[in-house]
Amino acid sequence: MRLPKRCLPSSGSTTTPAPTTTTRITTTTTRTTSTAPAPTGITTTLPASAGYVALPTASVISGSFDGRMVKYDRQGSSGACQEQSETGEEDAVFILQPGASISNVIIGKDQAEGIHCRGPCTVTNVWWEDVCEDAITIKQTGANDVSTIIGGGAFNAEDKIVQHNGAGRVSISNFFASSFGKLYRACGNCATSYERHVTVNNVCLHGGSEGVGINSNWGDTAILSNIKTNGKPSDASVCCTYQGVPKGSEPPKIGCGDGYSACSYSESAVGSC
């Protein structure tokens, strides 16, 4: 099993990160003529793309951006996938400013870091064709901050899909995950040991090792409902607890299942998909 990722300074450290060269995309309203409406259920197949764009640098999103189901990645640039090599937000496809939202986008396979949220963000109907390092990294720092992931899905994540390095809560709903290590991981060895919370509702998990991983000694909690799997992860492994540790160490797993108070769900209620 792959050990949890050691987080970089740009993913939660108080160290000032190196300047990031970015391509800026700034809009103030969401387009209303999208080819794909916001999902109300779970889709289990990768949507067809409406076009393709290879970005030379990460694109910064302020306000709302509707990608109209165009595929974006970093092919031919320094942000292309380097397997599980540690990289930073400069290798993302999109960087979301606090309060920004992105919808109806396909993230292609030639990228390292997917989406980085510098603060609370909303991600709706976004698909990852082939996750490289992580699909999405959450870096909000407020205890009451909430980032929301609605619909969409991710395929072939060797490690994590959602990496929560910051504070606050992440909400995941109507999401499909196939062939992955963890759907969600609260960082267990970042420079700042935040209390983190996750709410997961109505997801379909295929071929995963774990659903969510949280650090119970830091006060992390997970609330899960309407969870469906194909048997992998197991009903118990839908939620696992870890011992959060200082940066530079590896967080040990405590255990998995509904017997741990930090994991609020019922193993017997886990369904099939």
TrEMBL record:
Catalytic function, reaction form: Eliminative cleavage of (1->4)-alpha-D-galacturonan to give oligosaccharides with 4-deoxy-alpha-D-galact-4-enuronosyl groups at their non-reducing ends
Chain positions covered by the region annotation Disordered: 1-42
The name this protein goes by in its record: Pectate lyase
Family: Belongs to the polysaccharide lyase 3 family.
Superkingdom classification of source: Eukaryota
GO MF annotation list: pectate lyase activity
Keyword presence, Ribosomal protein: no
